[in-house]
Amino acid sequence: MPESPLALVTGASRGIGAAVARALAPTHRVLLGGRDVDALAEQAVESPGAEPWQVDLSDLDGVRAAVTGIDRLDVLVHSAGTAELGTIESAAPSAWRANFEVNVIAVAELTRLLLPALRAAHGHVVVINSGQGLAARAGWGPYAASKHAVRAFADALRAEEPGIRVTSVYPGRTDTDMQQTIVVGQGKDYTPGDYLRPDSVAAAVLSAVTASPDAHLTDISVRPRPH
Ligand code: NAP
């Protein structure tokens, strides 16, 4: 029997990445990216057949070591991300660096290292972007700038690698630890039902990955809807 296709999902220990891993697990062998070994082990139980792929994406030597042996990769989903917010007046250089390090540089370097494996499989790269990657709101500059940058990364990759499908997914506010931290940090009450469910974003990712081979879903916006 042929082996199932291989998918690597970063940020798979929690939130949107964990939901994407669960959505892909029935049809793919999934590598679960993240730093927290215990959380990855828990997700491996939720996604039968999936295996932890523990690496801190801000440690590029560690990233290089972790991709060793991946010669063929069908799906690479970049969901790991960080959100350091602030106004232009208040944001320190460290906030800009933190966003760019995980949301842009790690995405570019991991993709670059895995390009031969992606080419070998005529693979698919999915970047979990954000509504902030399309238009920046006041107070979100450092994060929004990183998401605009990673949109440019995805567009350039698509233009340079016609054999690989590249999809940017732009979720609105989604019920995850990241969103809860932001809302609580703004001194507001957090009501999970006000936000998109991570499974709904994962369904959009799955629609891109399972699109017929002649179709290339390049950009998908997913907005929360009152319910
Ligand atoms: P989350 O619940 O905070 O999860 C973040 C994930 O990223 C975790 O798995 C975390 O791993 C991983 N991560 C962060 N820094 C890392 C690093 N240096 N090395 C390895 N892994 C790292 O966030 P989320 O809401 O699911 O966000 C997922 C993506 O969606 C992000 O790109 C975010 O910008 C985007 N997004 C989120 C929303 C939203 O409302 N939640 C809306 C639009 C877009 P650990 O467990 O090891 O920390």
Topology at a glance:
Elements: E1 6-9, H1 15-24, E2 29-34, H2 37-46, E3 51-54, H3 60-66, E4 75-78, H4 93-121, E5 124-128, H5 141-160, E6 165-171, H6 177-185, H7 198-209, E7 219-222
Parallel strand pairs: 1-2, 1-4, 2-3, 4-5, 5-6, 6-7
Helix pairs in contact: 1-7, 4-5
The structure holds NADP nicotinamide-adenine-dinucleotide phosphate.
The site of NADP nicotinamide-adenine-dinucleotide phosphate has 28 residues, from helix 1 and helix 6.
Quick structural gist:
With 227 residues, the protein is an alpha/beta fold. The chain has seven helices and seven strands; from the N terminus they run βαβαβαβαβαβααβ. The protein has one domain: NAD(P)-binding Rossmann-like Domain (Rossmann fold, 3-Layer(aba) Sandwich).
Q: What would the CATH topology be?
A: Rossmann fold
Overall structural class, as computed from helix and strand content, comes to alpha/beta
Number of helices: 7
Distance between the termini: 44 Å
CATH architecture heading: 3-Layer(aba) Sandwich
What's the pLDDT, averaged over the residues? 97
Helicity, in percent? 40-55%
Q: Quick one: CATH superfamily?
A: NAD(P)-binding Rossmann-like Domain
List the ions, cofactors and other small molecules found in this model. NADP nicotinamide-adenine-dinucleotide phosphate
The largest pleated sheet is described as:
7 strands, parallel
Strand content: 5-15%
Q: Record the strand order, biggest sheet.
A: 3-2-1-4-5-6-7
Number of strands: 7
Low-confidence stretches: none
Shape: globular
What's the Cα radius of gyration?
17 Å
Q: Any idea of the CATH class?
A: Alpha Beta
